[in-house]
């Protein structure tokens, strides 16, 4: 793979996130006392959990995005306090063998990815190390055992099937800007050549930018272009959908330009205007198909796992490790549209799906009907609320947990009450996973295995499957 060894430009031009712990952004401790920029040359020793290179500088940890362990780099200090220094990469002086050339033409500006400069294999190894360190630190475990990771194809490119495009009408140049936000900034970066999206999404992006161009020609009223808040796009082999999130309804002639555009590109077209309900203007709800034949209907605004290939393998792996028997009751918590519910229902006696959003609960029941599954119950519950514990006692043989980043602390604290023999915990935050694992272990479960899920390659987001048994 091609290596980029020098002249690596700063990719954080768009802005700088002021660190929380009272860090100075003036020259007092970080820059020179005159306030002029301070450049340093340092050796990078390791990566932080969120993928920044860490070096030592004057006895403090110095965090440098885009730098890799084993590299000597020139960096510019952007902020500092007594404990830590923040710096931006100016130049790689000696490159790591793990450094690769990012495929995306807008990688340096866009806030979407932060690890494209690291080989795909090293990203996976790094993420595995982070999970292991956090688990060993946060629990009484002395070692953990790993399954083969579930790896994204194509070296971790071309996988993302769902994106949200930010929109901003720039009155100074009378232009509607559409794209991803730059890192820690409101600036919008056009992403017509985004390298991490699916081929179908690439085609859809081309179509969206074509529509934006047409609107600039046909719609002269700025009051119309201001109405675009954001655009949700979903595109994979199964279907392509777009949802325009609008502040106010578009005038009829403009709406018909958009409808005609959707017709020409054979897209499912949705609008959400202000707080009004989501409406399907053209086409139909999308349906995603899993390997085991399960069909999942969804709209572009629903939570959908962004990496279809990894998700499909994940669902099958969860089914395997839970080893669901025909007499089993399965409890699927944080169930969304029923991604795990339906495959479980094909194997189990009965499945109960629990989720906070009522629309998702309704859709999971619709999805059960779509798959002719009659053994699914679904209900709305806030699983961070003590009231959710009332029905936990002796509720299942197998438990699936797939919480948001905050994790599932309350449920983990009481998980023994479910009487589950096996637990599959799908985590998108290794810190909450480590905390919750300790609660689960304290109730007599053992951690059987971990699987690194390469759900978000080229980014520092970490997804893991942890399997507990009793
Ligand atoms: C990571 S998603 C997983 C969804 C689903 N399991 C899937 O694979 O598509 C987390 C889900 O938890 C739901 N959720 C978030 N907070 C919740 C809460 N406090 N109680 C119950 N569900 C919640 C979200 O609405 C979302 O559907």
What does this structure look like?
- The structure is a single chain.
- The chain contains 9 helices and 21 strands.
- It has 470 residues and is α/β, with parallel strands linked by helices.
- The chain has 3 domains: 24-94, Nucleic acid-binding proteins (OB fold (Dihydrolipoamide Acetyltransferase, E2P), Beta Barrel); 121-154 and 307-469, Rossmann fold (3-Layer(aba) Sandwich), CATH 3.40.50.150; 160-286, OB fold (Dihydrolipoamide Acetyltransferase, E2P) (Beta Barrel).
- The chain has a 7-stranded mixed beta sheet. A 7-stranded mixed beta sheet has the order 17-16-15-18-19-21-20, with helices on both faces. It has a 5-stranded mixed barrel with strand order 1-2-3-5-4.
- The longest helix is centred in the middle third of the chain and has 20 residues, at 199-218.
- The chain starts with 38 loop residues before the first strand and ends with a strand.
- Mean pLDDT is 92; it is low at 1-23 and 25-31.
- S-adenosylmethionine (SAM) binds next to loops.
Number of helices: 9
Q: Kindly identify the CATH topology of the largest domain.
A: Rossmann fold
Q: Give me the CATH architecture of the largest domain, please.
A: 3-Layer(aba) Sandwich
> How many domains comprise the coordinates?
3
Bound molecule types: S-adenosylmethionine
């Amino acid at each position: 793979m091609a290596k980029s060894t020098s002249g690596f430009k700063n990719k954080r031009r768009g802005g700088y996130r002021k660190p929380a712990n009272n860090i100075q952004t003036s020259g007092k401790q970080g820059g020179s006392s005159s306030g002029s920029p301070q450049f340093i040359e340092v050796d990078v020793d390791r990566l932080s959990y969120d993928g920044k290179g860490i070096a030592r500088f004057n006895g403090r940890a110095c965090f440098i995005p885009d730098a890799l362990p084993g590299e000597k780099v020139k960096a510019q200090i952007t902020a500092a306090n007594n404990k830590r220094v923040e710096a931006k990469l100016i130049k790689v002086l000696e490159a790591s063998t793990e450094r690769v050339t990012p495929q995306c033409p807008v990688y340096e500006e866009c806030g979407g990815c932060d690890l494209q400069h690291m080989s795909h294999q090293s990203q996976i190894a790094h993420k595995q190390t982070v999970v292991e360190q956090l688990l060993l630190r946060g629990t009484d475990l002395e070692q953990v055992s790993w399954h083969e990771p579930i790896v994204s194809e194509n070296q971790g490119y071309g996988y993302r099937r769902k994106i949200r495009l930010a929109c901003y009408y720039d009155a100074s140049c009378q232009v509607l800007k559409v794209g991803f936000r730059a890192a820690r900034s409101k600036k919008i970066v056009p992403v017509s050549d985004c390298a991490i999206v699916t081929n179908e999404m690439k085609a859809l992006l081309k179509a969206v930018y074509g529509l934006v161009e047409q609107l600039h020609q046909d719609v002269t009223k700025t009051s119309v272009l201001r109405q675009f808040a954001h655009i949700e796009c979903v595109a994979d082999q199964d279907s392509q959908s777009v949802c325009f999130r609008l502040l106010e309804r578009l005038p009829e002639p403009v709406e018909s330009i958009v409808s005609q555009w959707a017709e020409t590109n054979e897209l499912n077209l949705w609008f959400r205007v202000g707080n009004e309900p989501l409406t399907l203007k053209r086409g139909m709800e999308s349906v995603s198909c899993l390997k085991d034949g399960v069909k999942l209907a969804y709209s572009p605004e629903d939570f959908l796992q962004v990496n279809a290939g990894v998700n499909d393998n994940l669902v099958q792996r969860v089914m395997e490790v839970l080893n669901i028997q025909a007499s089993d009751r399965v409890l699927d918590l944080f169930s969304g549209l029923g991604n795990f519910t339906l495959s479980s229902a094909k194997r189990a006696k009965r499945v109960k799906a629990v989720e906070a959003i009522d629309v998702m609960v309704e859709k999971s029941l619709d999805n059960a009907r779509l798959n002719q599954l009659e053994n699914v119950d679904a209900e709305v519950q806030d699983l961070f609320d003590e009231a959710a514990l009332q029905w936990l006692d002796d509720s299942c043989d197998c438990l699936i947990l797939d919480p948001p980043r905050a994790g599932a602390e309350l449920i983990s604290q009481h998980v023994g009450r479910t009487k589950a023999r096996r637990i599959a915990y799908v985590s998108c935050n290794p810190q909450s996973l480590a905390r919750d694992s300790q609660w689960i272990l304290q109730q007599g479960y053992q951690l059987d295995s971990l699987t690194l899920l390469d759900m978000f390659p080229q980014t520092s987001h970490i997804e893991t499957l942890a399997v507990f048994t009793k």
